[in-house]
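Data card: per-record layout.
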Amino acid sequence: GNGTIPAVYAERDRLAKDAGVAIMKLVEKGLRPRDILTRKAFENAVALDLALGGSTNTALHLPAIAWAAGLDLPVEIFNEIGARVPHLCSLSPAGPYHIQDLYKAGGVQAVLKRLLDAGLVDGSCRTVTGTTQAENLAGARVRDEEVIRPVDRPYHAQGGLACLKGNLAPDGSIVKQAAVLPEMMVHSGPARVFDNEADAFAAIKARKIKDGDVVVIRYEGPKGGPGMREMLSPTSALAGMGLDRTVALITDGRFSGASRGAAIGHVSPEAAEGGPIALVKEGDIISIDIPAKKLELKVDSAELERRRAAWKPYVQTVDSLFLNRYRKSVTSGVRGAVLE
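The structure for this 340-residue chain is written out next.
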């Protein structure tokens, strides 16, 4: 792949042309996407992302692509595979290295080769080259043992992403655990509740968020947004103010690949669907336990039922006919926000 080639390198142009030639060869051979997009191929992709410490958006894109290929890729698979695939690459903003460093160290191919040698990916999968994963990786090698660490000396024993569940996220949520500071892996604090990103960002800038708080941004999911915007401004503001060491953020929206800190997204069911996140009140205690994969609202079920009976959804109005049609058909974030 060309993802790690720096934009200014001529190699990127050459590889783009090679990709066009490769596509025509696939057409000639009659090799279709569904011949390549197998269950094992998706598991390989999850393993790679976990080793890289990649974006939480992987937990949107891969399930969505799998759904289009007629496969089910539940969000829980990130925990299942992450239990055996360690975090090997400490990339910015969670670590000291950048994409150009990964490129010089051997790139995606070198990471895959390391996983293949450890038996953590399936080398028999057919790829877009027409050959198998193992054949593609025969010449790959790691050129920097710190940028791409050995499996027996990882940055973290578990993969970079984790799925959290509990009464606040019955269907699941996602966190980039590789970017969470040790002191925030387990955290409890009072909820600071906002019904949209703009209000949350304004409160953060006004320094109304205090150490220990749990910022809740809801009605920003696929239906609620609508469109599931990235909560980049709030997470960047918290990190820039040094609050990522003491403050967590929970949302039914999503994040950019540049997020860091205890930022938990894709909370499902989302608020617009009446998920438990819609019932959170200011000051409620929220408990986060990333090692235990738990996300809990410390409010008893009877009180939650009383709140549900009185609940009225907050609706973000949009003029776009497409977005209003989209919000009626889109599924939850943990399912890839696909249309049904």
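Known properties of this structure: Residues 235 and 259 are 6 Å apart (CA to CA). The longest helix spans residues 10-29.

See the next section for split statistics.
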